[in-house]
Every structure is written in C-alpha cells, then in structure tokens.
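Q: Give me a protein?
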Amino acid sequence: MAVPGTSLFNLQTVTAATPAKVGATGVRRLMGCVIYPASAITKVEFKDAATDTGTVILTLQGADDGNSIFHDFTTIGGIPFGTAMFCKPVGASAIVYVWYD
C-alpha cells in the first residue's frame, strides 16, 4: 500500500538520446507509460534486459497526429520483465515517461 501523498509506482523519464535501464537490475513490472511527442516515426521498445541487447517484450508506436499517448497496464497487473527492463525510444526528441513497480 502506498504512503498517502506518494505515487503508487516509480517514475522514470527516458529520452531517445539516452535509452536506459528502468530502475535497478532485477524483476520489474511495467505499469504504464506516456509516449511524447508521438508521431508516425516515434516508437518505443521495452526489452527484458539491463542493456539494449535483450529480447523485445513490447513495442509501442506513436500516433500520426503528434499527440502524447498514455498506455495503462494496471488493469492487467502490469507487464512483467524477469531480468530487468530496458526502454529504447526512437524518433526525434522522443520522450517516454515510464511507471514501473
């Protein structure tokens, strides 16, 4: 249970310029993300690894209209990553806000 006034999940910002491991190495659960700015060329890959060499578990595409896109995985209990979670946004100035447990 979360402490009142705090978020239920951890938040990390990952940019296209610096793809990164999300949180510490170990089991992670992707609970949600926002892709900004979303465009036809923006996408994000989530890999089950501490580096860019891992297996792609999930790929999300940006929208054609340039708006941000929110993906909520809390209703299904999140998406599990057994080793670690690596986030790799692709596209000019792409930013991904990642909520994880």
Remarks:
- Residues 10-100 form a domain with the Jelly Rolls fold (CATH 2.60.120).
